[in-house]
Amino acid sequence: MRLGVNIDHVATIRQARRTTEPELIYAALLVQEALADGITMHLREDRRHIQDSDVYQVKNIIKIPLNLEMSLNEEIVNIALDVVPHQATLVPEKREEITTEGGLDVQSNFDRVKDVVKRLHDKGILVSLFIDPEEWQVEASKETGADAIELHTGSYANAKNERERELELEKLINAAKYGKKLGLHVHAGHGLTYENVKPVAAIEEIEELNIGHSIIAKSVFVGIKEAVRLMRQLIYEARWKSV
Ligand code: PXP
After folding, report:
1. Are 107 and 140 in contact (CB under 8 A)?
2. Is the peptide bond before 199 cis (omega within 30 degrees of 0)?
3. What domains can you pick out in the chain, each with its CATH number?
4. Could you tell me if the CB of 219 is within 6 A of ligand 1?
5. Whether the CB of 168 sits within 6 Å of ligand 1
6. pTM exceeds 0.90, yes or no
7. How many Cα atoms within 13 Å fall on the side-chain side of residue 198?
8. Residue 102 — very low, low, confident or very high, per pLDDT cuts 50/70/90?
9. What pLDDT does residue 240 have?
10. Residues contacting 48, CB < 8 A, separation 6+
11. Which of 21, 34, 69, 241 has its CA at a distance of 20 to 30 angstroms from the CA of residue 48?
């Protein structure tokens, strides 16, 4: 299982003062040194954390894959086509939200998603669609020609009790199985923490997790390399037990 580390919140701290520290490039290099499998960044339309220049700089300096999270906004699509990340993950975006709230409604935005998938593919960029773990969204994703789906783990992470959490986990398992059956690569992410990652990491069909907030939060206390190492360790334990 691959671990993509989302470094947006390193930029959140920098933007709090509109200064140059902490340096995002340095964070990306340390994440790479910690043997993460990829760097994930979300270039939001409001540029609240990651800036355009960050995306170019990180892409140019890292050797591991860059996964660019992006909305369907034309300006952002054009930047992605110019940067050419290894992978683009298409997400919905609302200006007033604190973080990405729901998955992309692929069915309702089908023509636009299909068009963006094709343009990204023409540049050799792999495309993943960030969706809620629902069968119809998995099917619609497949029909757009996307390579992968990233299952939104937010409802699982925010479950109010154990029963709700089990139900949400079941949805993730079913969607992961269905996605794989349709020939899609399956990723997952959002709201995953050191406490809740293991059951998701144990889902065999999931190949990649993208985790940000919890890793960056822990790195304040233990450093970013150690924070990545600790997360990798949990993922490894979950995976090892399930085989
Ligand atoms: N995956 C996607 C598609 C996201 O939008 C985000 C948040 O930017 C993440 C993963 C990471 O979520 P978190 O910061 O809660 O780990």
Report:
1. yes
2. no
3. 2-242 (3.20.20.70)
4. no
5. no
6. yes
7. 10
8. confident
9. 78
10. 12, 15
11. 34
